[in-house]
Amino acid sequence: MEFRTVIEAPKKVFKIDYESKILTLGSCFAENIGQKLADLKYNILLNPFGTLYNPISIAKSLNLLKDKALQTENDIFEEQEVWKNFNFHSRFSDTKKDKFLKAINQNVEIGNQFLQKANVLIITLGTAWVYSLITNNEVVSNCHKANPNNFNRYKVNVNQIIEALEFIFLQQKGAKSDFKIILTVSPIRHLKDGLVENSLSKATLRLAVDYFCEKYPSWIFYFPAYELMLDDLRDYRFYETDMLHPSAMAIDIIWNYFETHFLSEKDQGTRNKIVAVRRAASHRPTNSQTSVYQKFVGDNLIKIQQLQNKIKHSNWDEELAFFEQFL
Question: Residue 156 in 3-state DSSP?
Answer without folding.
Answer: coil
